[in-house]
Amino acid sequence: MRPSLTAIAHILDLSKATLRVAWQNVVFAIAVKILIMALGLMGYASMWWAVFGDTGVSILCILNSIRILRR
Asked: Where are the transmembrane segments (predicted)?
């Protein structure tokens, strides 16, 4: 923690970036789940696609969130 007032501006920027990345992760996860569900309803995707898709989305969301640490 820095004892200066510039830390407040940095925290506000960091919180905005965190909110932006969180929304990106939510939208991406829902989009992939809808895509896999649609493919499953058409008979193109099995339960394994859903398992691997969900695991892949989780890993990608974690990697996307790590970007915040570099700020």
From this structure: 21-41, 47-66
**Termini Cα distance of the chain:** 14
pLDDT tens digits, residue range 15-26? 999 999 999 999
Provide the whole-model pTM: 0.82
Q: How far apart are CA 14 and CA 19, in angstroms?
A: 9
Q: Indicate the domain borders of the chain.
A: 6-70
Residues 6 or more apart whose Cβ sits within 8 Å of residue 50: 36, 37, 40
Q: Specify the residue for token string 């965190």.
A: 18
pLDDT at 61 exceeding the cut of 80: yes
The token duo for 12 is: 């506000």
pLDDT of residue 3: 74
